[in-house]
Specification:
This protein is of the alpha+beta class. It contains 8 helices and 7 strands, in the order βββααββββαααααα. It has 2 domains: 3-244, Beta Polymerase, domain 2; 277-328. Helix 5 (133-168) runs antiparallel to helix 6, helix 6 runs antiparallel to helix 7 (213-275) and helix 7 packs antiparallel against helix 8. It is rod-shaped, with a radius of gyration of 35 Å.
Length: 330
């Protein structure tokens, strides 16, 4: 169901709930926020504000490619709201901005709440109320970039978790998790690049506008986010190496244990084979051959000496050494 919110404001007050294009003549700026509008509502706005039909086509196509299109009396912008729901689901929700002289129209799905953020912007930013409609437009874009940083925080926690598991609990599930996380980071980097292109367009093509100061700092923030994403990608690549090393170390430990037991069992098996145990009477097992006690002693001696040698070489029963730095010895 479509939801429509209209706000008109000037440097003195903000009025929510009504407004029209005629209020612009009285010194108001108009912001119309539409949630899941139908074609008829978009057509009505097209007729009222006279924006280009190419913008309508992009909205009806539900395009997700971030871009800026400049027409005679307005600008059309596609910007993405990103949501990191889970490692398997990075959701990209398009928000469509139509900005003209004194009016701003935002169109999006119900999964995005711009009105609440708009109220916060109005309550905290007197400069936005005193400025043109571009200030509100730039402030909303800034808010969207701020949400990107929150997503990176969630990604960072995932990277730390998978890095720890790759080192201490390497398994096929961890490897699959690494692949999924790597794909999501690649998608994030692509979205950030596209967002930077939109911000870059405004900062250069509209640098003569006074309100562009609301957006200039965002360009640096986007660049930092891209650098952080790249660092996470490098971390994942190093985690893959850690995973391989951990698997190899586990394999070496298993082979070492098997080799030790084989080494202990080999001379005992050889001794048993040589003696043949021919002295056993299967019909009377209570009578043991005279050399049975000697055989047991020799077998225990071989096992004990072998274990002692392996223990002295710290191949078995060894504890991890704790490395203490110079600063910790005091």
């Amino acid at each position: 169901m479509m939801q429509k919110t209209i706000m008109r404001y000037n440097e003195s007050n903000v009025i929510e709930g009504n407004g029209s294009k005629e209020d612009i003549k009285d010194g108001y700026n108009i912001w119309i926020d539409l949630i899941d509008p139908d074609s008829s509502e978009i057509s009505n706005l097209e007729n009222t504000f006279g924006f280009d039909h190419k913008s309508v086509e992009k909205i009806e196509q539900k395009t997700k490619k971030p871009r800026v299109m400049t027409f005679k009396n307005h600008r059309f912008t596609v910007f993405l709201s990103l949501k990191f729901n889970s490692i398997k689901h990075l959701e990209a929700i398009p928000i469509y901005f139509l900005v003209g002289n004194g009016w701003l129209i935002t169109i999006h799905s119900k999964d995005v709440d711009l009105v609440t953020k708009g109220r916060i912007i109005f309550s905290e930013g007197e400069k936005v109320l005193e400025s043109s409609i571009d200030a509100l437009y730039y402030s909303i874009l800034t808010f969207m970039v701020d949400t990107y940083e929150q997503i990176l925080t969630a990604i960072e926690l995932e990277v730390v978790t998978v890095e720890r598991n790759a080192q201490h609990k390497p398994s096929k599930n961890v490897l699959n998790y690494l692949d999924l996380l790597s794909k999501q980071i690649i998608l994030l980097r692509r979205h950030f690049w596209n967002a930077r292109n939109v911000i870059n367009y405004h900062t250069y093509m509209e640098e003569d506008k006074d309100d562009i100061k609301f957006l200039k700092i965002v360009y640096d923030d986007i660049n930092q986010l891209i650098e952080m994403v790249q660092s996470y990608q490098d971390t994942i690549n190093s985690t893959r190496e850690t995973f391989s090393n951990s698997v190899a170390l586990q394999t070496n430990n298993v082979m070492r244990v098997l080799t030790i037991f084989s080494t202990i069992a080999l001379p005992i098996s050889l001794l048993i084979g040589m003696l043949g145990l021919e002295g056993f009477d299967l019909n009377n097992l209570t009578v043991l051959p005279k050399y049975f006690s000697l055989l047991i002693i020799i077998m225990l001696a071989i096992a004990g000496i072998s274990l002692l040698i392996f223990w002295k070489k710290q191949w078995i029963f060894s504890k991890e050494k704790i490395v203490i730095g110079d600063n910790d010895t005091n």
